[in-house]
């Protein structure tokens, strides 16, 4: 399922939408930061505070949960320095140690080495998504393991002998990824799988014998293949012979190299987890739920299996002790979603994150067999009180055809005193999903008096394959009507100002924002964050490393050679003069997915009709923004624009 290819990271911690360090082609001024939080008192005498963007971004975004060989430290990336760098977090709660000191490019940690404290990390240049893989040596020097220009690389997994690891890179052919095995001593490598047939490389077995591959036939039909590297002239073997439209995706190999875990929608609306026996060729059900089973993986020693279920825009984790086939019982945890679970080599201890709508992710550790947990990070800003923030409520409304549309509604505290303006917030994708969890962007706007509803319009993932495919080759049509009917739903709420409703979103969400502004007159403002505005150009200029799923992308959106007229007709850039209400457009100069020229032309098209448009270009970012200063500037600009025009 490849509808998430034109994605945005604005709903995740590591890619919270950020605007800053930018050139500004408009003549508007930045918002002056508030010196102090403002006390507001509701009519019921319950006081609350509003905070400026600087306060919201005094939080720290953190991710990564690799535990070192001694079991006493966790490898994480966080943006405490203003940009993501690598840190060593001790499990005893002592102060963390910064390991990288980048001031320009974000560092995204991958894994400790199995026997020492070298570690792997990736980084691109200015958000161009051409990630290289690096190792930091014990003396602190950094080595680029994938040197060269125009290539993209990532680590796959470690060999169970702990003397090598597997990497995929498209350096040989920009369209496809090959698999290399790297030696841990001198970083010499050998090509173990040459990919000339358009496969997507999914997973390598712990013993290095098997590689699981996938191939997309359409956006609703795919197959899995297995290659045995011990066989001479090895050829991929089809594992998923089937008829009709069935999707398959790989989770992982079991630690004993006997099974391949995969997900499929073959047996109903939702993905189930299945296990393929590599010796017998038989598949057995591993886990199913009334929602999609999103992922499944194992602890390092194979004792525990961690399974994630996408339950109505929240992740439910099930941790199974395979020695007793029972669910692991944990001590009482703080409120929020359990995420990023990882175990020490011997499974005697674990680390995990807790995240909620009102609190950013914090890292915790727990020693199995005890009743205590220890928090290892303090990601929140102590100046911000959680009671001043808002928890989202999952709601549903009916669209034009009676289809029920899910969404997450955030009601600001100010709504207890007066009617408030509202924004429909559209996710990326097209097949992404708005989910529960902390977003400084959302909380800043809600805290300052704007209702936010994060819509999961038809075509969103997480609600069954029928719902997922309802917008195939109908973008700008039925999905846009979902947005319009979301406005009608907001107008039924007695605390929403029915005349002050806007729309915003990034990537595909930016596209629907511009479609709403160009093809309807329903919305007072629009905030378009690196949105697709010219589908013909976007589909003609996809990165070469998307070749393996080009057909799936065309099945979803349209082929620019045969569907050019329709793609032209749903592209807002050609109809900018129809936009009659103010728009804010933001764009990363290095965006490889939505090229800057699209936003340039969209802005000029709107201006040709005489409508006000503000335009921000960020010279050091791509499709999603990671620098903290940028996020502060972003939220300030959003609030300034909304305060002025909504």
What does this structure look like?
14% of the residues lie in helices and 34% in strands. The strands form nine sheets. Strands 1-39-38-37-36-34-35-33-32 form a nine-stranded mixed sheet, with helices on both faces. A four-stranded antiparallel sheet has the order 4-5-6-7, with no helix packed on it. Strands 8-9-10-11 form a four-stranded antiparallel sheet, with no helix packed on it. With 646 residues, the protein is α+β, with helices and mostly antiparallel strands. The radius of gyration is 24 Å and the shape is globular. The model is unreliable at 1-45 (pLDDT under 50).
Instruction: Report the major sheet.
Output: 9 strands, mixed
The helicity comes to 10-25%
**How many angstroms separate the termini?**
37 Å
How would you write the strand order of the largest sheet?
A: 1-39-38-37-36-34-35-33-32
Strand-pairing-aware structural class: alpha+beta
Strand content: 25-35%
Please give the oligomerization state of what you see: single chain
The shape, in one word, is globular
Rg, rounded, reads 24 Å
Low-confidence parts, pLDDT < 50 over ≥5 residues?
1-45
Count, helices: 10
């Amino acid at each position: 399922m490849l509808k998430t290819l034109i994605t945005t990271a604005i709903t995740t911690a590591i890619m919270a939408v950020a605007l800053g360090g930018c050139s500004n082609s408009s003549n508007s001024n930045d918002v002056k930061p508030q010196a102090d939080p403002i006390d507001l008192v509701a009519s019921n005498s319950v006081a609350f505070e509003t905070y400026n963007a600087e306060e919201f971004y005094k939080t720290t975004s953190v991710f990564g949960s690799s535990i070192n060989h001694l079991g006493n430290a966790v490898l994480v990336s966080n943006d405490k320095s203003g940009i993501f760098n690598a840190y060593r977090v001790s499990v005893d709660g002592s102060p963390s140690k910064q390991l990288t000191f980048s001031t320009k490019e974000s560092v995204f940690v991958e894994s400790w080495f199995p026997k020492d404290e070298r570690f792997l990390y990736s980084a691109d240049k200015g958000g161009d998504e051409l990630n290289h893989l690096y190792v930091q040596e014990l003396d602190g020097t950094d080595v680029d393991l994938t040197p060269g220009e125009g290539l993209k690389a990532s680590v796959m997994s470690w060999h169970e002998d702990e003397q090598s690891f597997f990497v995929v890179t498209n350096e040989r052919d920009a369209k496809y990824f090959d698999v290399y095995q790297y030696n841990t001593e001198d970083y010499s490598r050998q090509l173990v799988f040459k990919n000339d047939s358009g496969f997507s490389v999914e997973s390598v077995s712990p013993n290095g014998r098997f590689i699981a591959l996938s191939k997309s036939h359409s956006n609703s039909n795919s197959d899995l293949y297995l290659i045995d590297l011990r066989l001479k002239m090895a050829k991929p073997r089809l594992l998923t012979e089937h008829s009709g439209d069935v999707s398959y995706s790989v989770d992982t190999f079991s630690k004993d190299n006997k099974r391949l875990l995969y997900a499929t929608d073959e047996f109903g609306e939702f993905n189930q987890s299945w296990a393929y026996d590599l010796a017998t060729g038989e598949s057995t059900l591993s886990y199913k739920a009334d929602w999609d089973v999103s992922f499944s993986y194992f602890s390092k020693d194979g004792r525990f299996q961690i399974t994630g279920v996408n339950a109505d825009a929240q992740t439910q984790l099930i941790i199974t002790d395979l020695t007793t086939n029972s669910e692991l019982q944990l001590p009482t945890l703080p409120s929020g979603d359990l995420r990023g679970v990882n175990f020490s080599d011997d499974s005697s201890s674990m680390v995990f994150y807790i995240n909620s709508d009102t609190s950013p992710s914090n890292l915790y550790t727990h020693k199995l067999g005890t009743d205590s947990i220890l928090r290892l990070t303090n990601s929140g800003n102590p100046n911000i009180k959680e009671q001043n923030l808002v928890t989202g409520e999952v709601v549903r409304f009916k669209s034009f055809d009676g289809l029920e549309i899910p969404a997450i509604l955030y009601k600001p505290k100010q709504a207890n005193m007066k009617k408030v303006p509202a924004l429909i917030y559209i996710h990326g994708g097209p097949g992404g999903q708005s989910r529960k969890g902390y977003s400084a962007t959302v909380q800043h706007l809600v805290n300052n008096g704007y209702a936010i509803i994060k819509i999961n319009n038809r075509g969103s993932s997480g609600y069954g394959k029928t719902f997922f495919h309802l917008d195939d080759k109908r973008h700008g049509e039925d999905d846009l009507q979902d947005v319009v009917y979301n406005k009608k739903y907001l107008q039924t709420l007695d605390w929403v100002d029915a005349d002050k409703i806007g729309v915003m979103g990034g990537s595909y969400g930016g596209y629907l924002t511009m479609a709403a502004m160009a093809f309807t007159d329903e919305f007072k403002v629009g905030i378009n964050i690196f949105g697709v505005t010219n589908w013909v150009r976007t589909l003609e200029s996809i990165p070469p490393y998307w070749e393996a799923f080009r057909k799936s992308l065309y099945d979803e959106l349209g082929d620019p050679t045969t569907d050019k007229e329709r793609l032209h007709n749903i592209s807002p850039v050609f109809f900018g003069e129809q936009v009659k209400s103010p728009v804010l457009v933001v764009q990363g100069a290095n965006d490889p997915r939505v090229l800057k020229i699209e936003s340039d032309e969209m802005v000029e098209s709107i201006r040709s009709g005489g409508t006000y448009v503000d335009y921000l270009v960020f010279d050091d970012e791509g499709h999603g923004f990671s620098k903290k200063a940028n996020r502060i500037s972003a939220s300030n600009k959003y609030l300034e624009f909304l305060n002025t025009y909504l």
